[in-house]
Amino acid sequence: MHAFSLKNCELGVATAATQIEGGQARTNWHRWAEQPGHIKDGSSPARACDHWNRVPQDIELLKALNVQHYRLGLEWARIEPGPGEFDATAIDHYRDELGRLRDAGIKPLVTLHHFNNPTWFEDAGAFLNPDGTDAFQRYTQRVISALGDLADEWITINEPNIYATHAYYFGVWPPGIRSLKTLTRVYTNLAAAHIDAYRLIHELQPDARVGVAQHLRVFRPRIAWHPGHWASAQTMEWLFQRMITKAMCKGRFLAPLSQPPGIRPGHYYDFHGINYYSRSTVSRLDDGVGADVPINELGWEIYPQGLIEVARWLHEAHPGPLYVTENGTANSDDGFRSRFIYEHLSEIANSDLPIERYYHWSFMDNWEWLEGESARFGLIRVDYETQERTMRESGRFFSEIAAARGVTDEMYQRHVSHQIYSRNTTPH
């Protein structure tokens, strides 16, 4: 039997503003993409999916997917194009989008920061600058005041660990800095910014639900009995996710972070957002992939049970409602995606954890940061040249799951049974 029920978990899809809206917003990523060699295919978020001009069309597609929830992001650079200068037209645009979602019976979960800095904020040091938290609070205050009657669920910061490590340790994202000391300073300021925003949102909107979308993964030693591999896995897990999660959830800044002034240990979340994609096989302080494991086109291991492993750790460490705020795979073989969705939702259905939501990443193909337009994550295919949208077979499968709140044996046979994964033959 392959059927399962999702009685306690509602379905949605997710996107981010910079990745789908298009247009010439003055962001760190638009500027980064203009510099040759930064983006794999040379593309820019200036094209993306032109969602800014196609909101009604895209909401009709959301309705066709039968989802109850939609996670969307705001483009800070549109809302506040200069320090303290707010654009009423941009705010009205987001009010219109949220109103249309509500009229369609789709509940929004709104992300304030999803890797996207206005260039003025980036040039002032962004979250490397302790004063950056004040700028983020000003933006947060304006957003909640302007949109709080249309939305009451907020993600303050998306994947703070990915943002910080890629931008300030590996140096492959803007602003391209490589420094462990700088990384810990950014971690500290990101956590402080979340905590201040959490408190502010609840002052303005007492009944709001506020959380962080944490990128969590499983770390395993390449050789289980090898003390060096085991120590590397433990160190990476602490530096990458346990340390920052504790700071953001509880206001406890443990080594190598430092406790910011004005922040005391407490409770700073109403739900946990979990972005889960893969497992890392570790022999050093790097991100490896094991031998003969299923992988997607980006070389990420497909490890569905890891979703429950990270969710269980997070819930035991910091009990609370769980939202899977991102989970998906990049593949030109759409059947691969259908199997991926089935296996991850099956793990949720068979779990005893309080997983209330599952948001598939992503609603539509999008501009995937360093990968540009080359990585296809969407349930909806986007032809970037014509901006034509087409629902993939995996999208039809997802819409059936959302409508039925589960999978039947017949659905499994039709969408999943004949699909197989490619496997890794060159471990690293």
Detailed description of the structure:
The chain has helices spanning 17-20, 28-34, 55-64, 76-79, 88-103, 119-123, 132-147, 160-168, 180-204, 227-250, 305-317, 334-349, 393-404, 409-415; strands at residues 4-5, 10-14, 69-73, 107-113, 153-158, 209-221, 272-282, 294-295, 322-326, 355-361, 380-383, 388-391, 406-407, 422-423. With 428 residues, it is α/β, with parallel strands linked by helices. The protein has an 8-stranded parallel beta barrel, surrounded by 6 helices. A two-stranded antiparallel sheet has the order 1-13. Strand 9, helix 12 (334-349) and strand 10 (355-361) form a beta-alpha-beta unit. The longest helix is centred in the middle third of the chain and has 25 residues, at 180-204. The radius of gyration is 20 Å and the shape is globular.
Characteristic key phrases:
single chain; 428 residues; alpha/beta; eight-stranded parallel barrel; two-stranded antiparallel ribbon; 14 helices
Structural class: alpha/beta
Give the strand tally: 14
Q: From the alpha-carbon coordinates, what is the Rg to the nearest angstrom? A: 20 Å
Helix content: 25-40%
Largest sheet: 8 strands, parallel, barrel
Q: Average pLDDT value?
A: 94
